[in-house]
Amino acid sequence: MKKSYHMILTLTLVGIISSGALVGIYKYTQPMIKANQRKALEEAIFQVLPDAKSFKTIKKDKREIYQGIDSSGKIVGYAFVGEGPGYQGIIKVMIGVDPEFEKTLGIEVLESVETPGLGQKITMSFFRDQFHNLVIKPFVKLVKKKPVAPNEIQAITGATISSQAVVDIVNSTTSKVRALLGK
To answer: Could you tell me which residue ranges the FMN-binding domain spans (predicted)?
Structure first.
């Protein structure tokens, strides 16, 4: 009986010390994680808005929209984060569009847990480059063959669900942001 109490007390003490250590490590690393996420977000903004030298943040309806500005003060486009379900989990994408919301200037995948070797190909340049100067009005379409229309993207063979997820994210997010900005 005395031995059981001793084991319970020891396990409780180990649990308290371990959880305290985890809380301490979390509180110590959280500011660094936030700073790295902010840095990655800013880098993605300049990736999808290549002519921008700075940006201004517009907050509308709990959404942050980044207005890209060139060195002369002219608006070169808008960037915003879109997210949606992929094959394995949530995909988060930075989308850059021209000031008139007619074409994409590029996309950058911020987060993805898609299948390595297949779905993860959405992060590769051959797929992302298809979103450069892609017509988004009325919407982007995914095709399995070589694109012939200015609003078509070719799916990745073996990763059609992930490809479609990115296209759906681009379509839904651009239409929401377009409505928010009255474009």
So the answer is: 86-177
